């Protein structure tokens, strides 16, 4: 997929403003998950592998307004917060649901992801 984001003409009709395009990513390391954002997915994953060589890339999904999407995800995960952008579910059953729902977002369709979010 190219990093060229093209907004759907109907986004404004449902309240999604096609601004601030970027990616939300999840990385896994042991029992912890990092929720982060980037405007360049390849560069960010390469950087992450320098400070966490064995991390699992759970997913990297495109969104409009990605800074807000990251903030909402992190606020929603507050009870699992450990430090920085790291979260730990400590065996909570919500983990499987969260990961399943995140993986369901498209790897390519920024418009659909932004509407479904």
Descriptive account of the structure:
The protein has a 5-stranded antiparallel β-sheet. The longest helix is centred in the middle third of the chain and has 11 residues, at about 40-50. It has helices at about 40-50, 65-75, 95-105, 110-115, and strands at about 20-30, 30-40, 55-65, 80-85, 85-90. It has one domain (about 15-115). With about 120 residues, the chain is of the alpha+beta class. The two termini are about 20 Å apart.
List keywords for this structure.
117 residues, alpha+beta, five-stranded antiparallel beta sheet, 5 strands, 34% helix
**Tally of strands:** 5
For the largest beta-sheet, the strand count, sense and barrel status come to: 5 strands, antiparallel
Number of helices: 4
Overall pLDDT, averaged? 91
What's the oligomerization state? Answer: single chain
Give a concise summary:
The protein is of the alpha+beta class and 117 residues long.
Task: Map the helices and strands.
Elements: E1 22-29, E2 32-38, H1 41-51, E3 56-63, H2 66-76, E4 81-83, E5 86-88, H3 94-104, H4 110-116
Antiparallel strand pairs: 1-2, 1-3, 2-5, 4-5
């Amino acid at each position: 997929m190219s990093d060229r984001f093209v907004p759907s003409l109907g986004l404004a009709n449902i309240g999604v403003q096609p601004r601030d395009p970027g990616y939300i990513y999840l990385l896994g390391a042991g029992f912890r998950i990092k929720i982060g954002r980037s405007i360049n997915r390849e560069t960010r994953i390469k950087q992450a592998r320098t400070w966490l060589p064995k991390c699992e890339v759970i997913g990297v999904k495109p969104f409009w307004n990605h800074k807000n999407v990251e903030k909402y995800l992190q606020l929603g995960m507050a009870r699992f917060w450990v430090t920085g952008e790291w979260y730990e579910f400590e065996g909570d059953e919500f983990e499987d649901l969260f990961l399943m729902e995140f993986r369901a977002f498209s790897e390519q369709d920024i418009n659909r992801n932004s509407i479904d979010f």
